[in-house]
Amino acid sequence: MVKLDEDKLRDIPGWEKNAPIPICMGGDYRALTFCCKPGFSLAFAYKCRRDETLREIELSPEEFIKIKENFSKENNWDSDIVCFGSISYCCMRRGGCPRRDMALSIRYPDMTKDEFMEIYFSKKKELSRIILENIRNTDGRKKVRAYLDLF
User: Fold this and answer.
1) Whole-angstrom Cα distance, residue 47 to residue 149?
2) Which residues contact 86 (CB under 8 A, 6 or more apart)?
3) How far apart are CA 134 and CA 116, in angstroms?
4) Which residue range(s) make up the domain with 29?
5) Domain assignment present for 7
6) What is the number of structural domains in the chain?
7) Is position 141 within any domain?
């Protein structure tokens, strides 16, 4: 079992305990679910660790994009409102993101913001697991194995 740094975790509805903070703030591999599309760095670009983290676990940017875009299609998360055309690329910002929150309110029109944010974080947790499960390289799998046990 991996030892998690309590300062790098959040309890959020839909993920519950031990959600990682974003990669750019020092989050673990599971936080790739909150990263932008490779080739871009929006939030905290000056300290973005997405590409470094993908290299570390030996997941190509192309495979990362494929995973996120497939997930978006399967969950009806494509949206012209958000960055990169998919809610799967949206970040963790609990305080709100006008584009993300509007896209979610359109996807889940009969829900309150709290309700659709719980779904959002639940799906982001699912996407996080899928990303880590799709690492094929032996060294990369070794690095993420303990994090997969957290789901």
Assistant:
1) 28
2) 68, 69, 72, 77, 78, 79
3) 27
4) 13-146
5) no
6) 1
7) yes
Residue appearing with tokens 């790098």 = 8
- The total number of residues shown for the chain amounts to 151
Tokens of 39: 């080739």
CA atoms within 13 A on the CB side of 117: 15
Give DSSP secondary structure letters for 121-132.
Answer: HHHHHHHHHHHH
Its pTM stands at: 0.93
40 assigned to some structural domain = yes
What six digits make up the tokens of 79?
């949206």
Residues linked to residue 20 through DSSP beta bridges, in sequence order: 9
**Opening angle at CA 78, ends 77 and 80, nearest 5:** 130
Q: Is residue 84 part of a domain?
A: yes
Convert the pLDDT of each residue in 6-18 to its tens digit.
899 999 999 988 9
User: What gap in Å lies between CA 24 and CA 16, rounded to an integer?
Assistant: 21
